[in-house]
Amino acid sequence: ARRLLGDGVKIGEEIRSRVKEQTELTCSVGVAPNKFLAKLASVVAKPRASREGVKPGYGVFEVLAGSELEFLHPLAVESLWGVGPVTLEKLSALSIKTVGDLAKFDRKILINVLGGSLGQHL
């Protein structure tokens, strides 16, 4: 695909351009070594609403191979699949706010607090 279409960012920009042209809608694109990271990257690429108005997003955001932890660790833990309001409350009680906090936390305690399946997953 790279030889024919270019790198991931170029492909993402082309997709955004075609979507805009054909539907008059905007979209965000995440480019990453796997689907999980690409989904999170697409969220980073979106515009953000704030009290000052809408802040433009990147449109296309790329997570380079080798920089996965640098990208993930500062993210809010609720950006992970499986972390809803109840789990977030339990993690907050353990002072786990970011993915990096979660990565450093004792796995056995997580399993004890969250249950085997979710504790293992996170």
Give a verbal description of the structure:
The chain has two domains: 65 residues, no CATH class; 45 residues, DNA polymerase, domain 1. The chain is 53% helix and 10% strand. The chain has eight helices and four strands. The chain has a two-stranded parallel ribbon. It has a two-stranded antiparallel ribbon with strand order 2-3. A hairpin with a 2-residue loop joins strand 2 and strand 3. It is elongated and about 50 Å long. The mean pLDDT is 91.
Give the arrangement of secondary structure elements.
Elements (H helix, E strand, L loop, with lengths): L1 H4 L2 H16 L5 E3 L3 H11 L2 E3 L2 E3 L4 E3 L5 H5 L12 H9 L5 H6 L2 H8 L1 H6 L1
Parallel strand pairs: 1-4
Antiparallel strand pairs: 2-3
Short description:
The chain has 122 residues and is mainly α.
